[in-house]
Design goal:
This protein is an alpha/beta fold and 271 residues long. Helices cover 45% and strands 15% of the residues. It has an eight-stranded parallel beta barrel with strand order 1-2-3-4-5-6-7-8, surrounded by six helices.
Length: 271
């Protein structure tokens, strides 16, 4: 397993759970603390300066592990499911840009709340979600990259809330279409949605391609009430080879949150 940390691209800066500083300031710190990857949070993927990003990734021996959508939904209120066609169209356009960006770097494409809310309104049904995700997966296949769906608790979104629900939905898509989807497992959300985080991890580990690690109340791992140590042990037993990224409150600063998180997770991995 490898560690990654979320960083916003320059056009995507705002109130997100990530570093919001220039790559040349952030990447050296991540390297020194033991991170191997970056989870890039973007607002408009077509505006991401590939050369600038690639230069500092290579300089500090980091990989672009995944690309996420948080600034799109926070700043621009974009969702793949939305009653307004213009919003859906722009959300899908930016998703295509995200897939191209992932293809350029061999990164994972992450879709959480960005998928939108299910309702009976036009463009918001379960059928619409299935059609949209199948289309996205076909496009991702052309770039040779994988798409991961993130189960989130019902206070955030009204669909695909649990690990089992998401697994079942993905398996149904695969029976109907030749598409491949994986799971982004968020330990904080699992603390709300799952009867047992460790048991759910074991059931889904073959589908999990990326992990958001956090403790209760989005604290640094090991500083809350969730079974972070047990999760890390299971991941080692199951030979999980993907990235563990952090989605935590940046308190008291991004620097301290990132350093404490790395120190804790590396100590658990060594133990």
């Amino acid at each position: 397993m490898k560690l990654a940390y979320p960083v916003t691209s320059p056009e995507g800066r705002g109130k997100v759970k990530a570093f919001t500083k220039d790559y040349e300031r952030v990447f050296p710190l991540l390297h020194d603390w033991g991170y191997q990857g970056v989870e890039l949070l973007v607002r408009d993927p077509d505006q991401v300066d590939r050369q600038y990003l690639d230069q500092y990734l290579k300089q500090w021996n980091l990989n672009l592990a995944a690309v996420g959508t948080s600034p799109m939904q926070i700043k621009d209120k974009l969702f793949l499911l939305h009653p307004e066609e213009s919003v859906r169209r722009e959300a899908r356009r930016r998703c295509s840009g995200l897939l191209r960006l992932c293809g350029d770097f061999g990164a994972l494409a992450l879709i959480g709340k960005y998928r939108g809310q299910i309702s009976e309104k036009p463009g918001c049904t379960w059928e619409d979600l299935a059609e949209c995700m199948e289309d996205i997966c076909r496009e991702a296949k052309r770039y040779g990259i994988s798409v991961l769906l993130e189960p989130q608790n019902s206070a955030n979104i009204n669909n695909l809330n649990t690990i089992d629900e998401t697994l079942s939905w993905i398996e149904e898509r695969e029976r109907r279409e030749s598409v491949k989807l994986g799971i982004l497992a968020d330990i904080y959300h699992m603390g709300i949605t799952e009867k047992s985080i460790p048991e759910s991890i074991r059931r889904a580990v073959g589908r999990i391609g990326f992990i958001h690690m956090a403790d209760s109340e989005r604290k640094v791992p090991g500083e809350g009430k969730l079974p972070v140590g047990e999760v890390m042990k299971i991941l080692q037993e199951e030979k999980y080879e993907g990235y563990i990224s952090l989605e935590i409150d940046q308190m008291p600063s991004c620097e301290e949150a990132a350093e404490r998180s790395a120190r804790m997770l590396l100590s658990l991995a060594d133990g």
